[in-house]
Amino acid sequence: MNAFDQSDPAKDLALVLVTVFQVLCGLAFCGSIYLINLASLDLLNDWTLSIKSEFFHFTQEENSPFWGMAFFAVPAIGALISFFVLDYLKKVIRQE
User: Fold this and answer.
1) Rounded to an integer, what distance in angstroms lies between the CA atom of residue 78 and that of residue 95?
2) How far is 81 from 65, CA to CA, in rounded Å?
3) What's the pLDDT score for residue 70?
4) 72, 31 Cβ separation under 8 angstroms
5) Does pTM top 0.85 for this prediction?
6) pLDDT tens for each residue of 18-55
7) For residues 76 and 29, is the Cβ–Cβ distance under 8 A?
8) Quick one: pLDDT at residue 57?
9) What is the 3-state secondary structure (H, E, C) of 14-78?
10) Does residue 95 surpass a pLDDT of 70?
């Protein structure tokens, strides 16, 4: 029997948007990793990054490569987590 299979346009649009946001998360992750690499090579030496805390005795000197790497590691981790959350969301959308 020939059955007419009509796909839901909202579902298709949601899948496309999730895929686009996954690509953007991948680009943000790659860009953050590249900037972490530049910071580790001490090429971002004109940045003034320092954190002074009274609770910890671990203080890096101002303008060290560590703070540049730590600064760019946060968006890299966020982009990686967002990528996998969007992948899970894509699987949920496909199942419905």
Assistant:
1) 26
2) 24
3) 85
4) no
5) no
6) 999 999 999 999 999 999 998 888 887 666 655 555 55
7) yes
8) 57
9) HHHHHHHHHHHHHHHHHHHHHHHHHHHCCCCCCCCCCCCCCCCCCCCCCCCHHHHHHHHHHHHHH
10) yes
Residue 4 in tokens: 């007419």
What pLDDT score does 7 carry? 79
Q: Give every CB contact of residue 92 below 8 A, 6+ residues apart in sequence.
A: none
CB 36 within 8 A of CB 74: no
User: Tokens 């992750």 correspond to what residue?
Assistant: 29
What's the Rg (C-alpha) of the chain?
A: 21
Q: Which amino acid is at 33?
A: I
Encoded amino acid at 61, one letter: E
